[in-house]
Amino acid sequence: MNFLTQNKTTLRGVLAVCMVVAGVLHFAQSTPFIRIVPDFLPAPAALVYISGAIEILLGIGLLVPATRQFAAWGLVALFIAVFPANLNMAINHIKIAGIPDAWWFQAIRLPFQLVLIAWAYWYTRPGRPAPSSEGH
Fold this sequence. Notes:
By secondary structure, the protein is mainly α. It has seven helices and no strands.
């Protein structure tokens, strides 16, 4: 068993907490999120609040066995949906406090979205049952 397989449950918890925190930040510190919404999208503030609420709900959903797969698919969709905002931030050099506006940072940050998509996708498949010790 490799590190990822051994720590799948822990990593699911990490992703869930990250999503809840990110969602809360959409409400507590909405201005930076509003600034990176592309101009072609309507109602940037509403989109930020809606995406924040969705992040919170999907983060919690990852922790509930009955909703885990649905939440994971939702996160895959969300990570794809917010990519234009991340791209907008990079292309237009939108400065956000605490986030470097440097080519090297964007060169890491934008492809990292694929890592997030893969991480969420990992939970779209049902887990394998633990090996049984019966009969041994």
